[in-house]
Recover the amino acids of this structure.
């Protein structure tokens, strides 16, 4: 039952467009994150947050932090609705929404902590 609630909460968050932290980022921040992903400097992580693979400029780091802050808020709400932890909600979002959206050639960090190029 809790898994079903979590799935519904995650699906609702994704439907609202908050899976990528959209609520917490400006168009400029989104462009910075998208460019950093395309360059292989930033990638998704199995914990549901963005990670920095290589050195990035301070404005890109700030954009990543803004996205992660937005995601943390979404995961907290979803976890509370589903009666689970934020970590479980974040991991489920990665598995069901974020991983499938990673473009070919982009990087992500798997559950073992290794950076993998899709």
């Amino acid at each position: 039952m809790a898994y079903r609630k979590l799935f519904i909460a995650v699906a609702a968050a994704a439907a609202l467009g908050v899976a990528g932290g959209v609520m917490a980022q400006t168009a400029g921040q989104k462009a910075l994150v998208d460019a950093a992903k395309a360059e292989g400097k930033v990638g998704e992580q199995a914990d549901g947050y963005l990670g920095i693979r290589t050195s990035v400029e301070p404005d890109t780091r700030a954009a990543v932090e803004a996205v992660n802050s937005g995601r943390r808020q979404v995961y907290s709400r979803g976890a509370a609705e589903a009666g689970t932890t934020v970590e479980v909600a974040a991991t489920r979002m990665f598995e069901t929404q974020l991983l499938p959206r990673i473009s070919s050639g982009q990087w992500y960090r798997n559950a073992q902590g290794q950076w993998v190029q899709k």
